[in-house]
Amino acid sequence: FLNYLDVYPENSYVPDATYCLGRAYAAKGDRHNAKKVFVGFQHDYVLHHKFSNSLYELAIIEHELKEDKRATLLLKSMIKKFPNHNSIIQAKALIKTIQADQVTKDVTKPESKTKLETTVTK
Asked: Which helix (H) or strand (E) holds 99?
């Protein structure tokens, strides 16, 4: 995809190739480049038919990078702007996963002990 974008920078398929490049990076596990490509895609191609998909794809990457607040904002934005999108169920499920992960993190933190637990352990 990089080669295509270099050779045909003005072609009408550049947005599609850009989106596919982001997915290719994500599939390879190169989250930082995938994030960079998806952010650029969202900036440059707001009206593209894959824009909503790119929100979901970027949210997954943000979650994998432990940027859960950003991931949640992206997912909520997607749900609000594209309520009939075919990935809404997955987006809502990912929000629940993020929330569950956050609860688990909060419970396992030492500073999350209640006053009673702290008093009992002293």
From this structure: helix 88-108
pTM exceeding the 0.85 threshold for the entire prediction: no
Set out the domains of the chain in order of their start, with CATH numbers: 2-121 (1.25.40.10)
8 neighbors 14 (Cβ within 8 angstroms): yes
Start-end of H helices in the chain: 2-7, 14-28, 31-44, 51-64, 68-81, 88-108, 115-121
How many Cα atoms occupy the beta-carbon half-sphere of 13 within 13 Å?
Answer: 11
pLDDT in tens, 10-33: 999 999 999 999 999 999 999 999
Report pLDDT for 115: 47
Distance (Å, whole) CA 69 – CA 15: 27
Q: What are the backbone dihedrals phi and psi of residue 76, each rounded to the nearest 5 degrees, phi first? A: -65, -40
Neighbours of 59 (CB within 10 A): 28
